[in-house]
Amino acid sequence: MGAGTHVTHRTCASLAAVKAPMRWLVTGGVVGVLGGLALFLWPGPLATAAGAATPLPKLFRAPSYELVDQLDRPVASSDLKGRVRVVVTMDPYCTTLCPLTASKVRNLEALLKRQGLSGSVQFVAFSIDKLAGPAQLRDFLDQEGLDPNVSWLDYLTGPADKVRSVVRDGYHTSYYSVSNAEAEKLAPSTFQARMSNRLAEKAKAPFAIMHQSPLFVVDRHGWVRAAFGDASTVPSDVVVSDVARLVRSGA
Amino acid sequence: MSRSDGAPVRTATVARLIVGLLVGLALAFGLSLLVHRGTPAVAATAASSGTPTFPIGDLGPAPKLSGFTDQQGKPFDPSSLAGKVQVVSFLDPRGTRVSPVIAVNTLMALKADLQGTKQFGKRVAFVSIDVNPRPDGPEPTAAFMKQVVGYGKVPAPAGDWPFLSAPWDTVAQVVRQGYGVPFQRLDAKAFAAYATRQEADGTFFYARAWNPLASKDAPTVVGNGEIVIVGPKGRIRARIPRAYQVSNVAVENVVSRVLARTGG
């Protein structure tokens, strides 16, 4: 037993002696891998350089408002404090971009829901047509497959000067009325496909509204953090990513 | 062991430690690159400005467009595209969803930009392929170009923007295998199932475009709404999926880069 023990000790000592150089190499390798991974995966400057997100810039303060929603309920911007917002404009009689914006809103809500974020986000749409009241807004939402009773969407209207102050002055979004004849003349140069809108056909509005269709992401403190010129061409994953960053960072 | 014997041993040990550290760092760097490459990265394709960028490269030969006729009913001569960058789109002339939007919002706007720089028709040509050919009768390609795309006027000569049609087998072969663009024809029931899946994914195109050529009897064609950019030597250089939600500016960016790289 004693001899056996002695032999075993000697064998261990020999192995240790033989493998000592490799042991330092392996130790260095392990420390290197761990250190390297920590450097590259740590959300610091290196990770940022490798493609991780930087904070979204604060572009401008979102305007405050007191308007009414599609259910004719008074809604104020102060009601949304603490919630991230996705803001668009939609004219219920529009036959070009607004049906595309409505489609984008539906898809964004579905994508946010899949990420478990829908409860943290409020969609806000401003109607820019002075002829459309809450009933017309409900009809438009219904036509575009959006339930007017959902709580995650405020489709807002109000006196024309109040809406103008919010959309044009607050969100820097241009829109103006032209005669139908002029709109027909301008149509080919706008490069916007004509979209079906039964509500517009039925209403036979005496004028058309030329407008932009931007999309804004507003943080819970009321700062506009992302602005996109055309809601229909902004990739949905970019909006969802921006919203997710704001929700998860608490901004 | 004397001090003079210990120094080389220590040096060798330190050297091994440093080599190990460097190898480890290299491994970690390689791994982190793989991790970042594997991420379905928004950052890699689109900045927060919302303008996506699309990679360009040599993606193989474009198919030869033989056996097609243009919107004027004339046999198409593929050699007319030689030396030009081609913006190839796949449209349904009876479509009421993405086809009118791609044709007007993306392509017509792009055409205006390219006309502004005197490149349309000279260095850059558009080609559209009818992906929903009728089993009988003439294709409504000319009517689509005039009524839907051109707001009542022919938007471009057929030579600068041919809208090509061919029998279904030819179209399927050229589009699916030649360009590698997936698309399928669905009846009403299959389309309803497709729509349900896309609604859940947040990718369904809900809006309906005005199209007087639409037919309830026609099957619905679905695909990924792709535009393919082909270089002047007939090689596929870039793919732009879901072009109905890509701005003309983003497509022009790809065309300009292909022109710069290929000298087209």
Notes on the protein architecture:
The complex is a heterodimer of chains A (251) and B (264). Chain A is elongated and about 90 Å long. Chain A contains eight helices and ten strands. In chain A, strand 2 (66-68) and strand 3 form a beta hairpin. Chain A has a six-stranded mixed sheet, sandwiched between helices. A two-stranded antiparallel sheet of chain A has the order 2-3. Chain A has helices at 2-41, 45-49, 98-114, 134-143, 160-170, 180-190, 198-203, 236-249, and strands at residues 60-61, 66-68, 74-76, 84-89, 121-126, 153-156, 175-179, 207-211, 215-218, 223-228. Chain B is an alpha/beta fold. The longest helix of chain B is centred in the N-terminal third of the chain and has 36 residues, at 3-38. Chain B is elongated, with a radius of gyration of 25 Å. At the A-B interface, helix 1, helix 3 and helix 8 of A face helix 1, helix 2, helix 3 and helix 6 of B.
Gyration radius from CA atoms of chain B, angstroms: 25 Å
Counting DSSP E segments of at least 2 residues, the number of strands of chain B comes to 7
Outline the biggest β-sheet of chain A: 6 strands, mixed
Order of helices and strands of chain B: HHEHEHEHEHEEEH
Indicate the overall shape of chain B. Answer: elongated
Strand coverage percent of chain B? 5-15%
Query: How large is the radius of gyration of chain A?
Result: 29 Å
Q: What spatial order of strands do you see in the largest sheet of chain B? A: 3-2-1-6-7
Oligomer: heterodimer
Outline of the structure:
The complex is a heterodimer of chains A (251) and B (264). Chain A contains eight helices and ten strands.
Secondary-structure map:
The complex is a heterodimer of chains A (251) and B (264).
Chain A: H1 2-41, H2 45-49, E1 60-61, E2 66-68, E3 74-76, E4 84-89, H3 98-114, E5 121-126, H4 134-143, E6 153-156, H5 160-170, E7 175-179, H6 180-190, H7 198-203, E8 207-211, E9 215-218, E10 223-228, H8 236-249
Parallel strand pairs in A: 4-5, 5-6
Antiparallel strand pairs in A: 1-10, 2-3, 4-9, 7-8, 9-10
Helix pairs in contact in A: 3-8
Chain B: H1 3-38, H2 42-45, E1 85-91, H3 98-116, E2 124-130, H4 141-149, E3 163-164, H5 168-178, E4 183-186, H6 188-201, E5 220-223, E6 227-230, E7 236-240, H7 248-262
Parallel strand pairs in B: 1-2, 2-3
Antiparallel strand pairs in B: 1-6, 4-5, 6-7
Helix pairs in contact in B: 3-7
